[in-house]
Amino acid sequence: MQKISLIATVLFASFPCFLFAHKVPDSEWQKGTLEDIQFVEESYEHWMVYQGNGVVHGGTYSVQHFTIETQGMVYEAVPKNGITGIGLDKGRFDFTVNSTYMFAIEKATLYLRDSNGKQGTFLIIKKTLKQQAELPVSPKPAKTNDP
User: Fold this and answer.
1) Is this model's pTM higher than 0.70 or not?
2) Where are the domains of the chain?
3) What backbone phi and psi angles, to 5 degrees, belong to 53?
4) Which residue ranges of the chain lie beneath pLDDT 70?
């Protein structure tokens, strides 16, 4: 009976975590430019044993790749749910490429707000440090042997 009470207490205590979206502190939000949204075809396959026989199932699906650029970094991220067609975090988002949006980063998670303030959760798959453009080298004057 104590085990059931303990399990019920743990489940009840963790239940609110599933109801509410993650709250990112206001100080963590920054501006970035949404440089690109690409749909990338991913493939999958899995094995299944049915009546003693191995069966392989597979297919493809589209994943949205979001590229966000700041002054010093470029981030590439995919929605946490991964697959398009089912919406991002329970609904569609309003994004325009080459527009500025607010985003926040916590570890490998990127939170992005659309133009209506709706927050999406993304997994960072690539971070690129932007290099400063090398300054062009001016040609050195030619040496002459004139006295």
Assistant:
1) no
2) 24-43+59-129
3) -110, 140
4) 1-22, 82-91, 133-147
